[in-house]
Amino acid sequence: MRVNNSYNKVKCSVIILSYNTREITDRCLSLVEISKKNYEKLSGESLEVIVIENGSRDGSVDLIKRKYPWINLIQPGINTGFAKGNNLAMKDAQGEYFLLLNSDAFIKESTFYETLKFMESHTGCDVLGCKLTNEDGSLQPSTGFLPTPINIITWMLAIDKLPYIRDKIKSFHPNHRSFFKKVREVEWVTGAFMLLRRRVYEETGGFDENFFMYTEEVEWCKRIKERGFKVYYNPEFEAIHLLRASSGYDIKKPILKEAQGVIFYFRKHYSNFVWEIKLLLIIGYFWRMLFARLIGNSKKAEAYSLYLFGGG
């Protein structure tokens, strides 16, 4: 067994939540293991991997224990949700950096080495997000600007997709390809891949656990920005993300939870605008429901209808 004193200090803690995605989590961890070995070989520094096992019933625990015994496995015994689960792991983590990684996100062999090298050489970057793609290579929007009443309505009505307009507003959810082609300072990045310095967590306290899932990274990034930290997006680093696989493939859940998350965000930070935001969401989802029905997307139409008439 090789002894290396530099391994006494953990450079980065990789944090992954697992919940009933056995095969997907296995694929994620196998790639994490490859990238971890590559990083430790090239840098001489160590990484730790922490998995929060949120009460899966599909054999995930047995698989992780058998195939990845080197992983620090935390089992709270219940589904803690994204915010609380990640907070539990960050509280236990030893790294100088934390990387929050979804169990349905698949990284490259070079990911740990290249992203940590970037953070080391760019001290003005405190939180880093990467380019996310779908399995077929198409772009998956993964960053944006903090919610305001204006960009909520332009997002809900798809006004921020229009040429000229999209370049003049700070969109909550930018989705035009040109936005994602260059390194830029942003106001939030997705929790599917979120690399941050330890001191960011220590000075801000992590996620607000009142958010169970969706929009919690946006709210945390607001507090991160308020403390003077910088958030960046860098498309030079890339990962595949099976969008919403970790939430069970049901499109109703993300639509409902994101709307509830946006409302909670405004209730917490801009309480005077809560009713206006609720109205904007109703208008926006009604328009989206009609459009989904027009193009024959019955699943989305049903999800928007559920929010409007029984799910909100």
From TrEMBL:
The chain crosses the membrane at residues 273-291. Keywords: Membrane, Transmembrane, Transmembrane helix. It holds the Pfam family Glycos_transf_2. CDD domains: GT_2_like_c. Residues 13-202 form the Glycosyltransferase 2-like domain. PANTHER family: RHAMNOSYLTRANSFERASE WBBL (PTHR43179:SF7). This is Glycosyltransferase 2-like domain-containing protein.
